[in-house]
Design brief:
Blueprint: H1 8-17, E1 22-26, H2 36-48, E2 52-57, H3 70-80, E3 84-87, H4 99-118, E4 122-125, H5 136-146, E5 151-155, H6 163-173, E6 177-182, E7 184-185, E8 191-192, H7 198-209, E9 216-219, H8 230-244
Parallel strand pairs: 1-2, 2-3, 3-4, 4-5, 5-6, 6-9
Antiparallel strand pairs: 7-8
Keywords: Isomerase
Protein name: Sugar phosphate isomerase
Organism: Amycolatopsis alba DSM 44262
């Protein structure tokens, strides 16, 4: 999110300078689905700066209008060398949909997971308000309903949720987590350095270490979207991971 306004090579250069290893390219700005030229540019930028693509951040929401469109997204993810595609679970919160609307999203996610599997890819849900992953409980239910082994979820601290409740939610989805979006917001979406929520992230990384498998920790936001803050935030991220190990 912080680097949206920069071109692909500068994004990769900034990531390398900060000592980061993986990158998630967004489908809204840098590499749109089906844009082979942009995908090639991003892939070449990663090669120049010793990075790999862990995920393709799509804005697929598993709605009926998107039926049959996931193949292009999966093909672009393959061009980027990604192992995973991030998707969204509908357009409304879990308390705001009826059973029919929920089943439509389930059907869309099944299709996406099956198409991704054909391309050797995983899929992971954005853990976010205003979707069917607005709570850990709803996320677990949704993953069970979809019933695909290559579908998991991201995790991030929900807005305004106290640490204890946020961490309880992480424990609930821990076995299904594929990556975490790391940032410090409080209250609401007021951005702070990572160190402003040191206790939360140290404990979160402690829980994630118990998963016993490699997981991606992705810096998503920094204060004021200032790219110059990324090296310091990356250093804080590494220290938080070490503290939680």
């Amino acid at each position: 999110m912080t680097l949206r306004r920069l071109d692909a090579d500068e994004v990769a250069s900034r990531a390398e300078e900060a000592g980061l290893q993986v990158i998630e390219w967004g489908a809204d700005v840098h590499v749109r689905p089906g844009d082979d030229w942009a995908a090639e540019r991003a892939f070449e930028a990663m090669a120049r700066h010793d990075l790999t693509c862990d995920s393709y951040g799509s804005y697929f929401r598993a709605t009926p209008m998107e039926a049959g469109k996931f193949g292009e997204i999966a093909a672009t993810a393959v061009r980027l060398g990604a192992s995973r595609i991030r998707v969204w679970a509908g357009k409304a919160g879990s308390e705001d949909v009826d059973s029919y609307e929920r089943e439509q999203v389930v059907t869309g996610l099944r299709e996406a997971a099956d198409v991704a599997n054909e391309h050797g890819l995983e899929v992971a849900l954005e853990f976010h308000g205003g979707t069917l992953t607005d709570t850990a409980e709803s996320t677990v239910r949704l993953l069970d309903e979809v019933g695909r082994d290559n579908l998991g979820t991201y995790w991030q601290p929900p807005q305004d949720l106290p640490d204890e409740q946020a961490l309880a939610g992480l424990e609930l989805v821990l076995d299904r987590v594929r990556a975490v979006h790391v940032f410090s917001w409080w209250p609401s979406n007021e951005r702070h350095p990572l160190t402003a929520r040191t206790e939360l992230w140290t404990r979160a990384f402690g829980l994630l270490a118990k998963a016993g498998r490699p997981l991606d920790a992705l810096l998503e936001f920094v204060p004021d979207n200032d790219p110059d803050l990324i090296p310091g935030e990356a250093d804080s991220l590494r220290k938080l991971i070490e503290a939680g190990a």
